[in-house]
Design brief:
By secondary structure, the chain is of the alpha+beta class. It has a single domain, classed as RelE-like (YaeB-like fold, 2-Layer Sandwich). The chain is built from two helices and five strands. It has a five-stranded mixed sheet with strand order 1-5-4-3-2. A hairpin with a 2-residue loop joins β3 and β4. The chain starts with a strand and ends in a 10-residue tail after the last strand.
Length: 96
């Protein structure tokens, strides 16, 4: 299994998503975040399955996961997750 690392902004995105969902149901929030992390593990094992987004920055790729787009870059060990960006948000306003 390849390694997944999370940038600080990605960790904050996960926390924000968890807080939003947990307001209704903590167990649902826990399982939702776990599914996002499982998707990251899948991407790490198959890093080229995402779409090239070098228009955002060199080496950036993205992959959809439920209501989020996972932005990441590949590394020798796996992937480095940059952001979990809600699909309803404009990616032009995203900071990496």
């Amino acid at each position: 299994m390849s390694r997944v690392t999370y940038q600080e902004l990605a960790r904050q995105d996960l926390l924000d998503a968890w807080i939003h969902i947990a307001a209704d149901d903590v167990s649902v929030a826990d399982s939702y975040i776990e599914r996002l992390k499982e998707t990251c593990s899948l991407i790490a094992d198959n890093p080229n399955m995402g779409v090239d987004r070098s228009d955002i920055d060199d080496g950036v790729r993205c992959f959809p996961a439920d209501n989020y787009i996972i932005y990441y870059e590949t590394s020798d060990a796996g992937i480095n997750v940059l952001r979990f960006w809600h699909a309803s948000r404009d990616s032009a306003s995203m900071v990496l």
